From TrEMBL:
Signal peptide: none annotated. SUPFAM superfamilies: Nucleotide-diphospho-sugar transferases. Gene3D superfamilies: Spore Coat Polysaccharide Biosynthesis Protein SpsA, Chain A. This is Spore coat protein. One of its GO terms (cellular component) is cytosol. The lineage of its organism: Bacteria, Pseudomonadati, Pseudomonadota, Gammaproteobacteria, Alteromonadales.
Length: 260
């Protein structure tokens, strides 16, 4: 039998909204809400929070301890190394063959969608499967699934800073080496933004939680879309922000470094 690890990366030193993962939503840290939602996944056996060794991330480690969730601490900037070391540390018997990557800025991530992506990954036999290449779901519901072997090869081979910081570009950009699959949602909802990078993002997510969580703590994507369709002004709060802005900036920095 092979095992599946979910590794959620989180840090408090984000530049646009520092400490965002620990900001309170309905009196609970944002990260604790996301952890609770990930526990609804049926097709994975363990959840690990991968944070940095910096003192500023002690609060994340403390939260994990309070919630009885595994925490791994590694490099701040070389997130690919953090993932590899976290996976390796939680694979003593070499039974882990599948890694699921999620990021700590997605507090309304949907466990049902993650299960569908994991299922497609296994059915396709691919090395890598995501729901964002191309995206048909809102920013903030991204999930990537890949083999431990693909992670290991990327860890050995990836050289660019953007490939180390964003974990999977080496895999996604080398489709001659890795077989890739993509989950496509029946309806294109990619124009919605449900991730948290800036203050207006957090404002929107807080309003979503205030409207839905007291009635249905396990609210899903369908509930969110219904709310946003009924209250279109909510969805307009953060429409000016570019999707994957952090990755785009990192790749531009790589190009500038190459030209210097």
């Amino acid at each position: 039998m092979t095992d599946t690890l979910i590794i959620l990366q989180a840090r408090t030193s984000s530049t646009r909204l520092p400490g965002k993962v620990l900001l309170p939503i309905l009196d609970k840290p944002m990260l604790s809400h996301q952890i609770a939602r990930l526990k609804g996944i049926k097709t994975a056996h363990k959840l690990i929070i991968a944070t940095s060794e910096l003192e500023s991330d002690d609060g994340i480690a403390d939260l994990c301890q309070a919630l009885n969730v595994s925490c791994f601490r590694g490099s701040l900037d070389d997130v690919l190394d953090r993932y590899y070391q976290a996976a390796k540390a939680n694979n003593p018997n070499d039974t882990v063959k599948t890694i699921v990557r999620v990021t700590g800025d997605c507090p309304v991530i949907d466990s049902e969608i993650i299960d569908k992506v994991i299922k497609l990954f296994h059915q396709s036999g691919a090395d890598y499967c995501s729901n964002c290449d191309p995206a048909t779901l809102p920013d903030g519901l991204d999930v990537e699934v890949f083999t431990f072997a693909a992670l290991t090869k990327a860890w050995h081979e990836a050289k660019k800073p953007s490939e180390r910081e964003h974990v999977t570009p080496y895999i996604r950009n080398n489709k001659s080496i890795f077989t890739c699959a993509n989950y496509t949602h029946p309806n294109d909802l990619s124009h919605y933004r449900l991730t948290v990078d800036e203050g207006v993002d957090f404002e929107l997510i807080t309003q979503i939680y205030q409207a839905l969580y007291p009635i249905k703590p396990t609210f899903n994507l369908s509930d969110i879309i219904t709310l946003l369709q009924q209250n279109p002004e909510l969805g307009q709060l953060n429409q000016h922000i570019i999707r994957n802005e952090g990755l785009i900036k990192s790749e531009l920095a790589d190009q500038e470094q190459h030209h210097d």
